[in-house]
Design goal:
Low-confidence stretches: none
Shape: elongated
Number of helices: 6
Structural class: mainly alpha
Distance between the termini: 19 Å
GO cellular component, one term: nucleus
Strand content: under 5%
Number of strands: 0
Largest sheet: none
Subcellular location: Nucleus
Protein name: Transposase Tc1-like domain-containing protein
C-alpha cells in the first residue's frame, strides 16, 4: 500500500481539536503519527473555511468505468490476438463508450 492514507472524519476532528485545546502542531504530529504537513494543512483548511471535509477529486475524469475496464480484460482474454484498436471498437459496440487504442492498452496493463 502507498504512504497515502485517507483520514476519517473522527480523526480529522481530533487533529483540529488539539490546536484548539492549546497543543502544538508538533506534539499532535508525534502523538498521532502524522507528518507536519497533514496537521498544518488541515488546520489551515479549518481556519479558512470552517470545515474539515475533503475536497472533491481533481483532475481529468476517467474515460472508462471499472465495469468497462473489466469488460475490456474479459474480451482481451477471450480473443488473445485482438489489437487495441479492435478492442476499442468492441467496447464502443457493447457500451457506447468511445476510447482510444492507447487507453485500451493502458487499461490492460
Amino acid at each position: 500500500m502507498s504512504n497515502h492514507q485517507c483520514l476519517d472524519d473522527g480523526m480529522r476532528w481530533r487533529i483540529v481539536g488539539r490546536p484548539e485545546a492549546g497543543q502544538s502542531q508538533v506534539q499532535s504530529c508525534r502523538e498521532l503519527n502524522l507528518t507536519p504537513s497533514v496537521v498544518c494543512n488541515l488546520w489551515k483548511q479549518f481556519q479558512d473555511i470552517g470545515s474539515i471535509e475533503r475536497k472533491p477529486g481533481q483532475g481529468r475524469p476517467r474515460a472508462t468505468t471499472v465495469t468497462e475496464d473489466r469488460y475490456l480484460s474479459i474480451i482481451a482474454r477471450r480473443n488473445r490476438g485482438a489489437t487495441a484498436s479492435q478492442l476499442s471498437r468492441n467496447l464502443y459496440a457493447a457500451t457506447g463508450t468511445r476510447v482510444s487504442r492507447v487507453t485500451v492498452s493502458k487499461r490492460l496493463h
